[in-house]
Amino acid sequence: MFRLRIITPQKRVFDGEASFVEFKTVEGSMGTLQNRAPLLGALVISELEIEKADGKREIFAIHGGIAEFSQNTFTVLSDAAERADEIDVERAKRALEKAKMELERIQDEKRKKDLEGKIQRAMVRLKVANRK
């Protein structure tokens, strides 16, 4: 087992023991077990799945951030992280549709990047919510 902490600016989303974590960095999908070599990676908007000490699995929507594994502690720092059961599916669907419609009309490249991020976040929320 190792300690897992998922932290956002608003709260500690998770702080407990885990036996496995699967996550995605800019370099691809990864997983970690206890006593691994130190790791520092940039997370992408994606799912993060954990196996807790009791053997149960839990899935989170992670909105990018940083992952660090050091001294048998895995820390995720993210702007936002949500448990599957915390996701408002209807709100995520509305956000996805609104961003898609706006993306079709926008010419500004910076605004397009912002909308693409909104689309990614809404899609990962829906994917995580459907897996609970």
Report on this model:
The protein has 132 residues and is of the alpha+beta class. The protein is globular and about 50 Å long. It has two domains: 83 residues, ATP Synthase, domain 1, CATH 2.60.15; 44 residues. A hairpin with a 2-residue loop joins strand 5 and strand 6. Helix 1 packs antiparallel against helix 2. Strands 1-2-4-5-6 form a five-stranded mixed β-barrel. The protein is built from two helices and seven strands; from the N terminus they run E-E-E-E-E-E-E-H-H.
Please describe the structure with a list of short key phrases separated by commas or semicolons.
alpha+beta, five-stranded mixed beta barrel, single chain, 2 helices, ATP Synthase, domain 1, 132 residues
Largest beta sheet: strand ordering: 1-2-4-5-6
Tally of individual helices = 2
Give the averaged pLDDT, no decimals: 94
Radius of gyration (Å): 16 Å
Strand proportion, as a percent range, falls in: over 45%
What is the CATH C-level name of the largest domain? Answer: Mainly Beta
Based on the structure, what is the oligomeric state of the protein chains? single chain
Write the CATH homologous superfamily of the largest domain: F0F1 ATP synthase delta/epsilon subunit, N-terminal
Summary of the model, kept short:
With 132 residues, the chain is of the alpha+beta class. It has two helices and seven strands. It has helices spanning 89-105, 109-130, and strands spanning 2-7, 12-25, 28-32, 39-52, 57-70, 73-77, 81-83.
